[in-house]
From TrEMBL:
The lineage of its organism: Eukaryota, Fungi, Dikarya, Basidiomycota, Agaricomycotina. It comes from the Eukaryota. CDD domains: eIF1_SUI1 (cd11566). Residues 1-25 are annotated as: Disordered. InterPro entries: SUI1, SUI1_dom_sf, SUI1_euk. It comes from Coniophora puteana (strain RWD-64-598) (Brown rot fungus). Keywords: Initiation factor, Protein biosynthesis. This is Eukaryotic translation initiation factor SUI1.
Length: 112
């Protein structure tokens, strides 16, 4: 007795569920602008996922000068360098980045 059909397809073989396309569901190509509540009315705006061709220190300096707020650069384990700004600066950051040439469809606004 010879069973030929089991040799052609192994149902228990390791298979890539994405079919070789690793970008499905990936959040690495998006810029995430989030707002976090501190205490009372105070808020904090964070910018994550900045592309490598942009210098975060120069961008932070431009943000602080343009928006008249304080900010800092924080090193995160998962997202790399994160820019934190005082206050709700989400719309201002999105407008600033689109003027600098970043496509609007790669910017994700989060919060409230």
């Amino acid at each position: 007795m010879n069973v030929q059909n089991l040799n052609s397809f192994d149902p228990f073989a390791e298979e890539d569920p994405l079919g070789g396309n690793q970008d499905v569901g990936s959040q690495q190509n998006y810029l995430h602008i989030r707002i976090q509540q501190r205490n009372g009315r105070k808020t904090l705006t964070t910018l994550q996922g900045l592309p490598k061709e942009y210098d975060p220190k120069k961008l932070l300096k431009a943000f602080k000068k343009e928006f008249a707020c304080n900010g800092t650069l924080v090193e995160d384990e998962e997202m790399g360098q994160v820019i934190q700004l005082q206050g709700d600066q989400r719309v201002k950051i999105a407008n600033f980045l689109t003027e600098e040439g970043i496509p609007k469809n790669t910017i994700k606004l989060h919060g409230f």
